[in-house]
Structures are given as C-alpha cells and as structure tokens.
Amino acid sequence: MRSKVTVVGAGLTGRTIAQELARRDYADVVLVDIVENLPQGIALDLDQAASVLGYEPNVTGSNSYEDTAASDVVVVTAGVPRKPGMSRDDLVTTNEKIVGSVTEQALTHSPDTIVIVLSNPLDAMCHVAKSASGLPKERVFGQAGILDTARFRAFIAWETGASVRDVHALVLGGHGDQMVPVVSATTVGGVPLTKLVSQERIDAMVERTRKGGGEVVELLGTSAWYAPAAAVMEMVEAVLLDQKRVLPCTAYLEGEFGVTELYMGVPVKLGSAGIEEIVELDLSEQEQTWFEESAAAVRDVVGVLGKG
Ligand code: APR
C-alpha cells in the first residue's frame, strides 16, 4: 500500500518537499495551506507534470485537514520565514501559534502519525508540536541537523576539492548561530579534516556553517528552501522505508549529551517507529562546551513560549 504524507504549508519549502516526494512515487501527498486555492494550484501543477516525469498524479491540495486523514507522516512547514536582519528566534511568537494550531488540527485526523517539524525557530517549535500533538517524543522531531551538516559538507568539498559524497560530517546542537559543527567527527574519505585543512580554514568553515541560513536570507530576502526540503525528504524517506538511517535530527533529550527536557540536534536512528535510538558520541571538550552553550540559547527561546 502507498504511504500518505501531509505537508502543511504550501510555501517555498512545502511545495518543494511535495515535489520531491511526488517524484519518488511511493507516497500520496496532501499539501495543506491556509491560503485558499494555493495548495490546490500547486498540487494541480505537480500532478500535470507526472506523466512527463514518470510518477502517479497523486498530489492533493487542500485547505481542510479532513483530506489529511490517516497520514503516516505530517511535515510542518507552516509559518513565516525570516527576512534579512532577523534571527530565527524573532519568529517565535508568530510561529508558535501557527505550529500549535496546525499540529492540533492534523492530529485530529491522524492520531498515530509521525510529525516532522521544519518551522523556525526549530528547536522551540518542536516543543510546541510535541505538546499540541500529545504524541510520544519518538514521534515528534525536527529537521535542522541534516541541513546544517549539508552546508558544512558543501564548504568542505569546495575547500578540499574532494567529492561532497566523500565528506562525512556532523552538525549538532540547536538550529541557531551557536550550533555545533563537530570537527572531531568530520572526515574526507576517512581522513580526519584536521589532517587536510588548516585550523584557520576550519574555523572559517565552522563560522560560515553557523551563519549558513542567514547568508542565504541576505541574498534572497527570505529563507532557503531547496536544501531544507532535501533534508526533510531524507528524514521522511528514512521513516517510510524503515531505513534505520543514522542522521542528525532534533530530538527530545532526557539526559543524553548531558541535557534534559530539551529538543536539540543529535544523531538518531530513524525508522518506521520514528526516532528509534539516540546515538551518543564523545565530543571534544570544546565541542561539549559549545553544545552546552547552544542548549542554553535554545532554553532561552523555549522560555518565551506561551507568553506571546
Ligand atoms: N496554516 C497553514 N498554512 C499556513 C498557516 C496556517 N495557520 N500560516 C501560514 N501558512 C503557510 C503560508 O500561507 C505559506 O504558504 O505557510 C507557508 C509558508 O511558506 P513560505 O512563506 O514560503 O515560507 P518557507 O520559506 O516555506 O518557510 C517555512 O520553514 O525554514 C522554515 O524559517 C522557515 O519557518 C519558516 C518555514
């Protein structure tokens, strides 16, 4: 039987996720938005591309959650994106209301679904989705680490001239400027990055990764969507195909990495049950300090929830 995936938010990211999913052709896709006609129009366009690109025209656009019933996965992209000069945290009060409301509505029709959050500020929005859904922590998690790691991998590929496919890296922590590129776990074809690139160049790549989202916002005037959508796609696929991928995702921590009751980016094993394991690794002293500083920054934003 084909799976069913709902993507809430038919904006730049949501429609790109829908397109990626449609092209893989193993799931029916429902695209939901608050704006009338928008998801219907995008779905129609995607369905009319199907015969040429070789997939079934099974994308539905809707303003009603009834059409989302019995979804295996619900992806939440609804909300406002950043504008130049804004941090992700500036979005918290607006997006809290949107993420809470859409999660509640989606859960009414898919009570056993898995929720993947993309709306920013990501770590705090995962808390909102967890409480609005009432789902166990294994079934509510966020996308940030795959995107942040993908940015770091691109910079390393350019710096070393090696194929990006052979760059293995990991970016953990909160999805903010204090995220933690884990240099100690970064290799190119198995060779530690520190053997290939000077510390000065590594520091520059770490800094560019931390500000990677902002760099795109400054160029485009809004948030990135291709790389975020690709990252979500990798997570949806790991769940639908029960792949047991080990990927950096935003998970609810209860003591792992020394952090409690907080969503943070950590390596997890992803399969049909959602987060099937949190994979712990040894961080260097500096990385652990960065992780704790990042946790403090996430806690500050989570502390604002419910006060808007
Ligand atoms: N219900 C459903 N859809 C909503 C709601 C709501 N209550 N509120 C807003 N939306 C929709 C908007 O109508 C819009 O179509 O969410 C969509 C957001 O799309 P964009 O503005 O294009 O934003 P996008 O770039 O896709 O980013 C979405 O992901 O990366 C994060 O920071 C980014 O929080 C932002 C989110």
Walkthrough of the structure:
The chain folds into two domains: 3-142, NAD(P)-binding Rossmann-like Domain (Rossmann fold); 145-302, Lactate dehydrogenase/glycoside hydrolase, family 4, C-terminal (L-2-Hydroxyisocaproate Dehydrogenase, Chain A, domain 2), CATH 3.90.110.10. It is globular. The protein is built from eleven helices and 14 strands. The protein is of the alpha/beta class. The protein has helices at 12-24, 38-48, 50-53, 92-109, 122-133, 145-160, 193-196, 199-210, 212-220, 226-240, 285-302; strands spanning 3-8, 27-32, 59-62, 73-76, 114-117, 140-142, 167-168, 171-172, 180-181, 187-188, 191-192, 245-254, 260-271, 274-278. Helix 1 runs parallel beside helix 2, helix 4 packs parallel to helix 5 and helix 6 (145-160) packs antiparallel against helix 8 (199-210). Strand 12 and strand 13 form a beta hairpin. The strands form four sheets. The chain has a six-stranded parallel β-sheet, with helices on both faces. Adenosine-5-diphosphoribose (APR) binds at residues 8-14, 33-35, 77-79, 81-82, 91, 95, 98, 101-102, 118-120, 222-223, 225, 228.
